[in-house]
Amino acid sequence: MDIEDFPKGFSNSDQLEKYAKDLTEVYKSEKEKRKELEAAYQQLFKHSEDLNSNILELRAAHEELQKAYLDTIHRLVLAAEYKDEDTGDHIMRMSRYSALIAEKLGLPANEVQNILYAAPMHDVGKIGIPDSILMKPDKLTDEEFGTMKTHSVIGANILAYSKAEVLKLAEQIAISHHEKWNGKGYPQGLAGDNIPMPARIVGLADVFDALTSKRPYKDPFPVEVALDIIKEDRGQHFDPDVVDVFLENIDEIVKIKEEVGLKEDL
Questions:
Q1: Domain formed by 86-265, architecture
Q2: Among 164, 192, 162, which Cα is nearest to 176's?
């Protein structure tokens, strides 16, 4: 643009002054926006800190609630079988066996944890079995064994209709942990993959601990003898894959057994 293009009476100095004034206004406006953004950032940062603090508090409260919840479950299970002096050790051992097997089978971490928490409730239905049968030192009659078998259904009924994932899993385990791979178990006669995996795992863990523990009707079997029995029942009573993983990790299984109070079971 040439000088002659400017309107008459409008000098270069007037144009420069106008540009300077406009730039000053823009600068002031941007400076105010930066201040507003900085204030908003500081407020957001404070809110973030408060939120993180609240999250930590909620997490701690959740963990405390979870501990209380699990402690309550544990005590209820003990109440169901309190006459058996080894019940506390039994449920701790078999639940840890179950979690280890589940982990080695590659189950998701949250499912492994739920199995650890649900496994102790597998026999909660025994609260409905008469002591004369539950504590009988001799072999059960066919009629008595029929009564004993109802504990799986009783347990499932006790645990039914819960919204908690752990209790839903515990119900599934309670009703199915006496099913057999060949379909000759109870109470539903399920076979193979129709038996829920958690129940297959807990079923094996429960049998191993029962074999190697003292009971009113028997002395404990040595670990080697228990393993021979389990190997013989691979593909009959037990899921072959579960048995294989169990045997591959027997050293860790035995370590768990040794860590939990064994008393006269040694």
A1: Orthogonal Bundle (1.10)
A2: 192
